[in-house]
Design a protein that fits this description.
With 298 residues, this protein is α+β, with helices and mostly antiparallel strands. The chain has three domains: 62 residues, no CATH class; 64 residues, no CATH class; 132 residues, OB fold (Dihydrolipoamide Acetyltransferase, E2P). The strands form two sheets. A five-stranded antiparallel sheet has the order 2-1-3-4-5. β8 and β9 form a beta hairpin. α4 runs antiparallel to α7 and α8 packs across α9. It starts with 5 loop residues before the first strand and ends with a helix. The structure holds zinc ion.
Amino acid sequence: MNLIKKCNCSIDNTSYKLEDLNRLKETNPESKILKNLICPICSCKLEFHRKTDRRRAFLSTWPKEKHSDLCRFRFEYEERRNSSSSYNTLDSYLNGKEVKSKVNYMYNKMHKRNTETENSKDQKKDKHRKNPITTKKASSKKITKTRGSVRSSDSQSANSSGSRMTYREPGGITLQDSGRSITLGGILKKVNLDKTSDSDRAVLYITNDSGKTEKVYTAPAYFSQSTDGLRSRMETLSKIISKTNGQEFICLIYATLDSKSNIQLYLYEEGHMFFPKIPLGVYIYNTEQQNKKRALKA
Ligand SMILES: [Zn+2]
């Protein structure tokens, strides 16, 4: 339906936005590009419908074409149809600011908990007593300004982040999260790369002090996206992580049920991984710089 905002063209391997296609349809309605549009994830054939004054431009599948079972656009479509849930499914087209805001929110959530456990018993009691909603007014008198302001900036960042998101730590994901976009934060312990004859897949093992581990799989089309170096960066990441005890990590993923009704977690985009707040490319660069320096000293 009209949830896909970008698609690829199978002739020129270029990504087109709806606006681009509208312009093209106006200037060159017979363009071959318009006849060779495909889903950016699963490559099923798509048809472009131009904007009219009664509706927005949108992409639909060709008759008899279907997004593959694991394509996120299929999930989105079914999710919207079957559920009244106001949770948005993972949107690859969240802008950078929205993604960052979710990552920051998760980071603060994780670190606040860490500070809480280190706090004295008195402070803990105080936090338990305080219900942020009902005692908001009263608390502003008793509670120090710093703590109050942390709370308010947290909720702001959550509200301003656009679509709603579920925040989880390893062990916290349940069947009810199926169909949801999740920001998962924990320790990245291991990255495995599976090579099969027809596809590549990476598995990320994310854990925390609870001892629970969540496995996040790259989505089936992850490595066939038209971005250079996806595989080599994942390989480098795997090597880097194997030399550490784990790295603090936050990622945006999508939860769905597999054929045996178990929760499966999928990562769709490289841009949805953070260490814990910096993107993969920067993390790799920084680590390699540090290793060079260390090698020089040695
Ligand atoms: Zn698709």
